[in-house]
Amino acid sequence: MVLGILACGVFFLGLCKATAQTDDDPEYQVKLAFLYNFAQFIQWPAEAFSDSSAPLRICIAGPDPFTGGAAQALRGRTASGHRIEIKALKSKDDPRACHMIFVRAGEKNAVTKILSAIRGSNALTIGESKGFADSGGVINLTLQDNKLQFEINLDAALQTRLKISSKLLALAKIVKGETP
Amino acid sequence: MSEEAVTPDRPPENGSAASNSRDRQACHAGVPSLAWSPIEVSVQRVPESRRAETAWYGRLSIKYKLLGITMAVVFAALLLSCAAFAGYDVLVFRHSLIRDLQTLAELIGSNSTAAVAFGDKSAAEEMLAGLRAKPHLYLARIYNAEGKLFASYERRGVPHRPNPRLQADGSHFESDRLVLFQGIVLEGRRIGTLYLESDLDEIRERLTRFSGITCLVLMAALVTALGLISKLLGIICTPILHLAQIAKRVSMDQDYSIRAEKQNSDELGELVDGFNEMLGRVQRQRDHLEEEVSIRTSELLVAKENAEAAARRLQEEVTAKELANTQLAEAQQQLMDVSRRAGMAEIATGVLHNVGNVLNSVNVSATVVANKVRDSRVTKLSALTGMLEEHSSGLSDFLANDPQGQRVFPYLTKLSSHLEGERQGMLQELKLLMEHVGHIKQIVATQQSYAKVSGLVEIISPAELVEYAVRIVQPGLEARKIRVERDFDDVPPMALDKHTVLQILLNLLRNAEYAITERDSARNYSAGRILIRIRRSGDELVRVSVTDNGIGIPPENLTKIFSHGFTTRRDGHGFGLHSGANAAQEMGGTLYAESGGPGLGATVTLELPLTTAAADECAGVRRNGGSPQEPEALEEHTSLLGARTANLGYRCETIGIPNIIR
What we know:
The complex is a heterodimer of chains A (180) and B (662). By secondary structure, chain A is of the alpha/beta class. Chain A has helices at residues 2-10, 13-20, 26-41, 108-117, 154-159, 166-171; strands at 42-43, 56-61, 78-79, 82-89, 100-103, 124-127, 139-144, 147-153, 163-164, 173-175. Chain A has an eight-stranded mixed sheet, sandwiched between helices. Chain A has a two-stranded antiparallel ribbon with strand order 1-9. Chain A is globular. Chain B has 662 residues and is of the alpha+beta class. Helix content of chain B is 59%, strand content 13%. Residues 1-52 and 613-662 of chain B have low confidence and may be disordered. Chain B starts with a helix and ends in a 21-residue tail after the last helix. The interface between A and B is medium-sized, with 20 and 21 residues.
């Protein structure tokens, strides 16, 4: 709860208000905002989108934490001109079609699978479990001193053709780990 | 910048001495090379009163003025441009300050997007702390989208400021600071606001620095300009000063041969040319003038010498004239003597001639008488007497009987008649001889009367004397039908040298007659008129004037007619009026002529002193030297000896002539 208030204090007005009307876990509301922010500080190569109006797809591997309506706040938001689209990654879905894959903490088994599945693609993998970045994920959300932070595995990032803003890197904790 | 030190209220005592030295260096301010040149500015000495009226700048040298003007212009221009630059610079600098701040804000805003977006306050503040490098930026704050303070930076030492009220994006200057609001935008969404606050010390510093630099530049520029202008003014000033110096030298030395040196061929060169030409003209004129003056001087000298010589000559002439006057007087005296002698000689000649003529007759008569005496039959009578004495005894016989005797009586009768005839002839001849001798006596007597005119004084009435003279000339006047009018005052008889006066009167009358005759010889002289006046003037003078209506006398001749030898007559001697005047003078009177001019007649007046003193003297010696002579007889004499020798009336003789005839 503390985190939620903090997040509302930190996060910009619109998102906070939108999330304030949801029943979702405040932690995930903040994480959603982080996801959205990541999308704004990371540039995908042009071929990652079929056309300019193609949505930026955020896939959630594992249970969807934004069912309470938090995702509604992102409706209409864009990143790099692309509409944000959040959807759950089903096992039958091709993870390569996703631009961002949020891997829930419980999906340890799926991690390697997903990571190997998207190898060579431009999908950004974001985890929330300890060691996610070390194990090949690009960004890992961590909670320190009741404050949400993130790690970036630069080597993993370099494997993709994503351009991560230095501003984002300036805020992140850079970790080294095995590449996917 | 000495001209800026010159103030209008410069003390007047600086005037004469200080101004001189100042003027001397006037054109060389800042030009040391020229300061030693001998060129001096001509300083017109102005009286103190006028000097006081002259504006202070009026006393400055032209170089100072030019320098002052140029420096003032340069200074003003520099100052103006510096001020303009400063103003512009401030403006630009403010703009650049704003721009810099905006750039900074952009940078911070852009860099802080991630921090703001992820709510990373420490990262944001860490970023803001980087503003320490900007010393003038002392306050930076980041507000989140809700307008709440997210991150803040305050420079140390700056008092805390309350949170400013959020304003629209933009920047503005407040009294002592520049504030800026700028949104932090991410993906088109405003996620926060950046607030920056900067002090204006930079502008102040810049202004101060700029002012200092401006001052330095201004000083340097002015010094440079002063040096340059001082150097360059020489181009203008040197010829002018040269010209002024030449003009001063010319006016001081009066030397017009000096020429100004032409240094340029600009207007100043033309001025120099004009000045030189003017000098040349003045010099030529002066030379000409000097020449003329010298000519005039020499002429004057000559004239002076001439004048002196003339004066000397005049002196000499005066002396000579005095001498001549003396000589003239002597000569006149001599002339008078000579003329008198000449007259006497003439008279003597005439007398001798006439006497000679008569003597011929006398001789003839004497010869005739002598021949008659010599051839006289008286001798026959003596022979007869002798014969009779022979026959004295028988005289009767003889007479009666003797044949010879018988012839005696008839012979005697014949002889006596013959002798009677002889006697008659001789008597006749003797009578003739006597007449001749009497003639001679008359001639001699007449000559005597002329020679002894002086001193023959009688008491006689002037009117009587006039009448006498008129009577003498009457026949001639009547022949010419000249009327004689008389206008006599009652003048008593007076002592007069009758002969001389008469002679003068006759002269006057004859002159009058001549003048009338000359007036128009072809005309009838009926219009001729002679007016004789006798006027008594007080108790002293008697004037006898003869006025005619003849040809008159030209004014220039009025006095000449009294000179010896002057005559207008063809047969004149020029002696009449001259001797008349002399004679009148001798009598203590004068003879003078008046005339209106040619054709207007003339009046000749004899002025005599009215005196009776001489009469007594005369009375004592008076004797019956001669009988009253008739005018006829006088006429005869005058015809013989000329008018001058007329001898009239009773005579008062001192010396008598022996009676030849009587």
